TrEMBL record:
UniProt KW Ribosomal protein keyword: no
Entry-linked PANTHER family: NADH-QUINONE OXIDOREDUCTASE, E SUBUNIT (PTHR43342), POTENTIAL NAD-REDUCING HYDROGENASE SUBUNIT (PTHR43342:SF2)
Gene3D superfamilies assigned to the protein according to its UniProt record, in alphabetical order: Glutaredoxin (3.40.30.10), NADH-quinone oxidoreductase subunit E (1.10.10.1590)
Protein name (record): NADH:ubiquinone oxidoreductase
Record-stated family: Belongs to the complex I 24 kDa subunit family.
Obligatory cofactor(s): [2Fe-2S] cluster
Binding annotation for [2Fe-2S] cluster: C88, C93, C129, C133
MF GO annotations: 2 iron, 2 sulfur cluster binding; metal ion binding; oxidoreductase activity
Length: 181
């Protein structure tokens, strides 16, 4: 699977943060994956610059670092939302309208599977069986399991997560209003 890697410049604070992450794992065998996990947690995704710096700090070829990131689906090379929505499309969820729930979420969020909303509040993904087949269809938002999801409840289900996505001023992001005449 080919992923396009987003590009950001690392400022000195980010470089120091990445250096601390690498130092915390330096003498551990197999440090690469924990360093990548911590870096993704700190920066939200793994940019090309982060991967290059990890390569330099751990003295591991960039091709190896990049190969690990593209192999494991956990890692993201593009910005992700604060909340990850996973729609189960395992057999039980699929036959109980899981595909329609996915379509309704795509419409509500205006994103396709694998994409992140413009405000970086949500990333939409598909999952295969969350072990809650009797509660199908199931949607996980982060670590929260939502059962027997129906189109009519999608906005209600998303509301508390939307409330957590605030701008720098501490207010919920809003669409720009047209000036009144």
């Amino acid at each position: 699977m080919h992923q396009e890697t987003a590009s950001i410049s690392l400022d000195p604070v980010q470089q120091q943060q990445l250096q601390r992450i690498a130092e915390s794992h330096r003498d551990k065998k197999g440090a690469l994956i924990p360093v990548l996990q911590d870096a993704q947690g700190a920066f939200g995704f793994l940019s090309r610059e982060v991967l290059q710096e990890v390569s330099r700090l751990l003295e591991i070829p960039f091709s190896v670092v990049s190969g690990v990131v593209t192999f494991y689906s956990y890692f993201s090379t593009t910005p992700r939302g604060k909340n990850t929505l996973r729609v189960c499309l395992g057999t039980a969820c699929y036959v109980r309208n899981g595909k329609q729930v996915l379509a309704d979420l795509q419409k509500e969020l205006s994103v396709a599977v694998g994409e992140t909303t413009g405000d970086r509040c949500f990333t939409l993904e598909i999952g295969r069986c969350f072990g809650a087949c009797g509660l199908a269809p199931v949607v996980m938002v982060n670590d929260d399991v939502h059962q027997r999801v129906k189109a009519a409840r999608i906005r209600e289900m998303l509301a508390p997560y939307r409330a957590c996505c605030t701008d720098d001023a501490g207010e919920e992001p809003r669409e720009k209003e047209e000036p009144h005449e």
